[in-house]
Recover the amino acids of this structure.
């Protein structure tokens, strides 16, 4: 779990606002702790070790996808391509590793190709955005449809089930109590954070979201960085698709269903703004945990399924409202 | 042109309008008048489902192809990605073309989507068979060209797999239920079936019911959470469709519980049949997708060539529950390879699987 202290560390390198830095980003982690404590008090099963492991295991895929989408949101763009990209990479990896449809057995290479396919689709989104000047909302929606189309072609009426021992073990084997998928997500968050903090790509993504004109006027060619950010995001979705395939033991066209909006929700709940220029990978990780704790906790305390959707929505809105209260006061604007 | 006098122009346009109107009335008179007079070779067959990316609907369209081939025609395969607007658009385009001998076998996206499809087809004189979804008060008996609507009794299938689950568990133990999309009739009926089965098998306890929205991935998550919540008490999992049952199987595998928890589903997707064959799943129910794809076209075809007189069909052939099959390891081999039997599609046999009128 991310402690507020680490967040302070991240933002400390950015220009200091007048207000206290720690207070500004503390909203989501506090909300996470509060919600966790409430559920733990209500349900003994919730605070059990098995369930804590379960929360981390199920959060893994959403964490990786959210990692990717965070970079796009930081730029002030939006990305709705996750569902399609994940579907395409899920089918690709299922057909490339050992499976029941063909004789392929490429193992890690197959996984790499699936992730590259995701990156390629991301690059298409980025190129359409900078070359054709189509808003990211539309390009990524289109790329999502393209991804689903590719996936459907590969699906070809028969579901590929994987029998690759390594990929299957990602979901079942555990290290220090957590599944490999959870560890992969941790590595992704770490890599994402390093990119965001130490590379030009990450810093420019922030700057593009904050003030693109200023950046362009100071002589930076913005377009290549935009394409690179979408490509990076695509690679994360590709990995997400591979991870879903590992979990389900089969390549599904619907592998990424719903992940586009859950990832955006998680990022925003964590404190990444849709207008860009604020937030980051660690914020989003907190957001992912918040959503997962909420989904899990509502089932654990026995809220009726007919009420769950509504209750979850209310709590999310309340959490976001509490989290962005200090920011809203400063910005004086809500779009 | 500018020198044509006003009266001439008026006359000209009037006569044009008259021709157009005559065309119209002629069109509509063939639509209602010459029912069942199509030459088999002139018939166009169209099968429309949500998408080809799930095995059930892909098998449905394959069944349609098999029927089309048996009468030397081709089926036009249409998919609308579960998008109601897109479905209506496709139907409008079809009906704007030559509709005289058009036969459509349609899976409406939702109940509300059926009404415009039915009205459009009836007006254009196309033969229509719909499946699964229709509003309760919309009756094929009131239309000339909407030959039949067929669906399946969800309460019956929910109960069948509930009973099979009870049998596999020796009549007692705790189960969890994975419901479908809560506001669909299929989810409601199937769950009502489970409740009926639970009332009958008093040793069974429903520990928890949650929705996983018919999705494999969601079922995986929900099942993991419920396993963490109820632990060893869970001896059986009832899922409202096979996709969720398969997701639950993965969750059991990841929790190291596969083998000691019985799992049942509905739909008979290929993976579920494999799972029943290898013993990891207990039962499923088949509506026979390939048959559905063929039978809708066959009923429409027989009406179009005059072998079936739509007006004289009994009520339970216009709107009916079709027969469904419980699949366990006893009979799974018979269903392992989806295939259609051409005899089912002969005009005398198309109503052989009527299980009862819609209640």
């Amino acid at each position: 779990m991310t402690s507020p202290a680490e967040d302070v560390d991240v933002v400390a390198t950015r220009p200091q606002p007048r207000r206290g830095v720690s207070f500004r980003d503390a909203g989501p982690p506090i909300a996470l702790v509060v919600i966790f404590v409430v559920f733990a008090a209500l349900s003994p099963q919730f605070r059990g070790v098995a369930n804590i492991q379960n929360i981390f295991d199920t959060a893994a895929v959403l964490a990786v996808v959210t990692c990717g989408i965070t970079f796009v949101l930081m730029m002030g763009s939006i990305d709705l391509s996750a569902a399609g990209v994940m579907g395409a990479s899920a089918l690709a990896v299922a057909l490339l590793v050992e499976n029941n449809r063909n004789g392929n057995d490429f193992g890690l290479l197959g996984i790499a190709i699936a992730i590259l396919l995701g990156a390629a689709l991301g690059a298409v989104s980025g190129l359409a955005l900078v070359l054709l000047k189509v808003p990211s909302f539309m390009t990524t929606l289109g790329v999502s449809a393209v991804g689903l189309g590719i996936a459907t072609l590969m699906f070809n009426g028969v579901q590929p089930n994987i029998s690759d021992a390594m990929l299957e073990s990602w979901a079942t084997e555990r290290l220090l109590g957590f599944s490999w998928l959870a560890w992969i997500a941790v590595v992704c968050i770490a890599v994402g954070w390093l990119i965001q903090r130490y590379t030009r790509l990450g810093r420019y993504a922030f700057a593009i979201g904050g003030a693109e004109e200023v950046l362009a006027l100071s002589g930076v060619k913005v377009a290549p960085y935009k394409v690179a950010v979408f490509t990076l995001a695509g690679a994360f979705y590709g990995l997400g698709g591979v991870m879903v395939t590992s979990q389900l033991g089969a390549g599904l066209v619907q592998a990424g269903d719903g992940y586009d909006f859950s990832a955006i929700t998680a990022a925003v709940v964590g404190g990444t703004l849709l207008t860009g220029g604020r937030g980051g990978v660690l914020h989003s990780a907190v957001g992912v945990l918040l959503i997962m704790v909420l989904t899990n906790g509502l089932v654990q305390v026995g809220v009726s399924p007919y009420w769950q959707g509504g209750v979850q929505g209310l709590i999310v809105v309340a959490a976001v409202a509490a989290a962005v209260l200090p920011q809203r006061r400063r910005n004086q604007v809500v779009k | 042109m500018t020198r044509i006098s006003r009266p001439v122009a008026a006359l000209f346009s009037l006569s044009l309008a008259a021709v157009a109107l005559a065309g119209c009335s002629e069109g509509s008179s063939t639509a209602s008048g010459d029912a069942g007079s199509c030459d088999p070779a002139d018939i166009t067959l169209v099968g429309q489902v949500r998408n080809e990316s799930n095995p059930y609907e892909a098998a449905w369209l394959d069944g349609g192809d098999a029927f089309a081939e048996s009468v030397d025609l081709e089926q036009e395969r249409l998919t609308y990605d579960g998008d109601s607007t897109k479905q209506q658009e496709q139907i409008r385009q079809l009906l704007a073309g030559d509709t005289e001998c058009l036969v459509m076998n349609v899976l409406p996206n939702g109940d509300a989507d059926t009404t415009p499809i039915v009205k459009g087809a009836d007006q254009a004189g196309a033969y229509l068979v719909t499946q699964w979804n229709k509003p309760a008060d919309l009756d094929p008996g009131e239309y000339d060209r909407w030959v039949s609507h067929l669906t399946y009794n969800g309460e019956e299938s929910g109960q069948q797999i509930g009973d099979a689950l009870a049998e596999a568990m020796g009549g007692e133990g705790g189960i969890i239920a994975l419901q479908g999309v809560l506001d669909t009739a299929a989810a409601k009926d199937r769950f009502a079936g489970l409740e009926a089965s639970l009332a009958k098998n008093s040793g069974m306890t429903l520990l928890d019911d949650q929705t996983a929205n018919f999705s494999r991935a969601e079922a995986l998550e929900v099942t993991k959470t419920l396993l963490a919540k109820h632990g060893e008490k869970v001896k059986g999992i009832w899922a409202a469709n096979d996709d969720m049952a398969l997701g639950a199987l993965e969750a059991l595998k990841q929790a190291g519980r596969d083998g000691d928890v019985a799992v049942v589903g509905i739909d008979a997707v290929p993976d579920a049949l494999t799972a029943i064959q290898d013993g990891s799943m207990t039962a499923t129910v088949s509506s026979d997708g390939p048959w559905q794809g063929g039978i809708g076209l066959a009923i429409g075809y027989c009406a179009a060539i005059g072998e079936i007189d739509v007006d004289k069909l009994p009520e339970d052939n216009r709107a009916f529950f079709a027969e469904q099959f419980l699949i366990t390891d006893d009979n799974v081999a018979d269903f392992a390879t989806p295939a259609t039997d051409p005899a089912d599609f002969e005009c005398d046999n198309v109503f052989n699987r009527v299980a009862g009128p819609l209640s």
Confidence is low (pLDDT under 50) at residues 22-33 of chain B. The longest helix of chain B spans residues 6-33. Chain B has two domains: 40-152+288-357, 154-286. Chain B has twelve helices and 13 strands.
